[in-house]
Amino acid sequence: MLPGHVAYGLRAQYGLNVPPDTVVAWERGLARPGDRELTALAGVLWCSPGDLIATATTLREHRVARGMAPEDLARRVGVEARAYLRMEESGRWRGNERQTAALAEVLGLGPRDLLAATGKDEELAAVLRDAATTRWQAYVRPAAKLLPLSRARLEEVLQQLHADYQARMVATYSWGDSGGSGGEAGREFLDRIVDHFWALARL
C-alpha cells in the first residue's frame, strides 16, 4: 500500500484525517502515531498494534503492543489512571515496589526492559558508578530498589563490578594519574557501567 492508500483507509474506515505526508513520517520514524492512530493504522494494515512497533522501549509502546488501554493497565497495577497517564507521558515511573512488580508482570517485562521502560537507566548507572568506585556494599540497597534481583545475586554482581573497575585503575600505578592507560580504561568502563552490569547479571 502506498502512503495515500493508507491515509485514505484511515479516513474512510476510522474518520481520521491523516495526510499521506504524515504516514511517510511514521514510516521513517520522524513522527509517532497516537494511540487512536496506531490502533486505526493496525486496522487498515490488517495487523495488531504490536506488529507495528519494532522494539518497544517506553511504557506506552509496551502497553500498546499488548493492546491494553491505559485505564486497564493502571487498574491492574494499582495506580490511579490519571497518575499513570502522567507517568507514561513524562517517561518517569513513580510507582512503589509492589506497583512496579505488578507492572513488570502485566507487561511481561524482564529487569532490563522494565528499567528502560520506567526511565530509570540513568539512576541505575549512577548507583553502579558509585558502587564501582567506592564501597560497593553501601549500594546494594539502592540497587535493590531499582532491580527485581535477589540480594545475594546483586551483591555478587556489584562486588565483581567493583573488582573489575579497581583492576583497571591499578594499571595506572597512580590513583591521581588521569592520563594513563588504566585511567582511560577506567573512564570507559564507567561510561559503559550499565552494559557491564547486565553482562555480569546475564539478563
The largest sheet, given as strand count, sense and whether it forms a barrel, is:
none
Count every helix, treating DSSP H or I runs of 4 or more residues as helices: 13
Radius of gyration: 22 Å
Shape: elongated
Query: What level of helicity do the residues show?
Result: 55-70%
Low-confidence stretches: none
> Order of SSEs, N→C?
HHHHHHHHHHHHH
Instruction: Tell me the distance between the termini.
Output: 39 Å
Overview of this structure, please?
By secondary structure, this protein is mostly helical. The protein contains 13 helices and no strands. The protein has helices at 3-14, 20-28, 35-44, 59-65, 70-77, 81-90, 97-107, 111-117, 121-133, 140-146, 151-170, 181-191, 193-201. The longest helix is centred in the last third of the chain and has 20 residues, at 151-170. The radius of gyration is 22 Å and the shape is elongated. The chain starts with a helix and ends with a helix. The relative contact order is 0.07.
